Amino acid sequence: MVEWITTDGLTDYDDALAMMEARAEAIAAGEADEAIWLLEHPPLYTAGTSAKPQDLTDPSRFPVHETRRGGQYTYHGPGQRVIYVMLDVGARGRDVRRFVQQLETWVIAALAEFNVTGHIRDGRVGVWVERPDRPALPDGRMAEDKIAAIGIRLRKWVSFHGISINVEPELEHFSGIVPCGISDYGVTSLVDLGLPVTMEDLDVALRKSFDQVFGDAPSDLAM
User: Fold this and answer.
1) Any catalytic annotation for residue 180?
2) pTM, whole model, 2 decimals?
């Protein structure tokens, strides 16, 4: 059974990290159900294990949190749905690559509910959308923007950290970092794409597509 937890308002990052770590430990010990936690953070930057100092271009702008998740620098803030994924990867086959692919498939399926086509690109972490409305890149390729980031950590084969999807964040806030170390592409959101999608709309799509990808029936908890 996967428990879905939704927290209204803005959740302090350190508080969220403590909760995730405690829940992952309890899952590993067989003392708690798996969980998906939906929340928003106040404006902040997080640094993954591959973060490069030069990619933090405005270090005094927002708080910077060092994390042990995979990936590089990421922005979190209001209007962005953060999805912390606490699942027992050990019980799900111990295949980390497949698990990450399932997370990617989940995001793409949720975006498809709004007729948005998400793409996975070799060498670029996250989910991307093509932008035929933007000027092509210097080499002639179509412009693309990032709409979702993925970065997880495993402890005792239980995942934590997870996914962020841009619903309607302040996109200018991404300018204080080189998101995920990639400077040739931009960042977008569902609202920036011209879609009047709310956080609640996305949550419904995430619930529906999670069942399609992972095949689990969720329970509910509000915080």
Assistant:
1) yes
2) 0.92
